[in-house]
Amino acid sequence: MTPTSDRPEETLSRALLLLAPTVTVVVAAEFIVVGLLPLVARDLNIPLVRAGELAGWFAFSAAVAGPFVTLMARHLMPRFILTATLLLYGACNTLVAIGSDVNQMLIARIMQGAALPAFISVGASLVTALAPAAERGNALARANLGFVLGVLLALPAGIALAQGGNWRLPFLVLAAISLLLAPLVALRFPRIPATSSGGIGGQLRLLRQPEFLAHLALSVVLFAAMFSAYTYLGAWMDRALGLTAWGVAAAMFLFGLAGLFGNDLAGRVADRAPIRATIVAILLLIASVNLTAFAGDAILLATAPLVLWSVSHAASVTLGQVRVTLAGQMAPSFAMTLNISAANLGIAIGTASGGWIIDGHTIAAIGIAPLGFGMLALPLFSLIGRAASRDTYTRKVSDA
């Protein structure tokens, strides 16, 4: 394959450099609304649960429509997919920012959600086409950097930009960045051809592999564990630590910066032991969330577990993408798309479960839901581990 006149590693580096900001702004569009829901509800004079649909329908669309959009876009060049999605996000974020009709805003969010998985899957296509097989896990982690940044920095950025009650400004900023990045990507992104792995039948074969389905189920459970607490981290900082809105924004920003180390750490171990690394990361996350809750209003006591929470959260996000994409390497783009869908389903389940527990037991119970989901993950880890051991044994016998 000769996508450009550059060497494959140079082409991959240039592509990943452009992917980081574009994926960040697109993923941020999903999560930035979470910290703005009370302001949206108050400004539009609608119930909070109705405003919450701006987040819920985005996630639902990504989970249900995303795989179909990815299949339809499988023959398109990555550069075209990236540019078209940035233009779509620019238009939809503008509509949300200036709109007053909730139904129209929901349509814009649904369109964004449907396009998200195909957009994110471009990274998997690039890595599979250009990275050496032994380094694909690390390259996938690099491609996932924008996803991690979007997840971790959206909340503090939204809170900071909305100071004074103007919830529309964050969406205008995202729209402007999307529209500015679109021509840059159109002109500078490498001319890499589509890397579809066969037809639709070849892609759908992934859904007939029990081990791959177990990986997807594990992603649902793990993302539920992560976001059952993370969604309410800002509320915990407000209620338990008594921080001001600016204080919460600053703390969340520092939380996101610490997560960059987690992404880097995950990239270093992803090729060698993605399953064991995932187990360690989720155990650390559950422990750190509960230690944070036990710290109460003592900021100094909460600092160390918050850093550990951020590192393990980011590592878990990255390892989830790498783990599933490597498991479905016969069709990596579709595998990553399905994982994005599984992740969004987990986020929806985790957010609802965490909110239900916190409503019944106060914000101090923020660590209960992650612990419960962690226990649900145990049989899935066991199933995947047995399958991996069986495959290793089969390969050794075959080689002999």
Automatic annotation (TrEMBL):
One of its GO terms (molecular function) is transmembrane transporter activity. PROSITE patterns: MFS. Keywords: Cell membrane, Membrane, Transmembrane, Transmembrane helix. One of its GO terms (cellular component) is plasma membrane. InterPro entries: MFS, MFS_dom, MFS_Efflux_Transporters, MFS_trans_sf. The keyword Cell membrane applies. The keyword Membrane applies. Its main location: membrane. The chain crosses the membrane at residues 12-34, 54-73, 80-98, 110-131, 143-163, 169-187, 212-233, 239-261, 273-293, 299-322, 334-357, 363-385. Residues 15-400 form the Major facilitator superfamily (MFS) profile domain. It is a multi-pass membrane protein. This is Putative MFS family arabinose efflux permease. It comes from Bradyrhizobium sacchari.
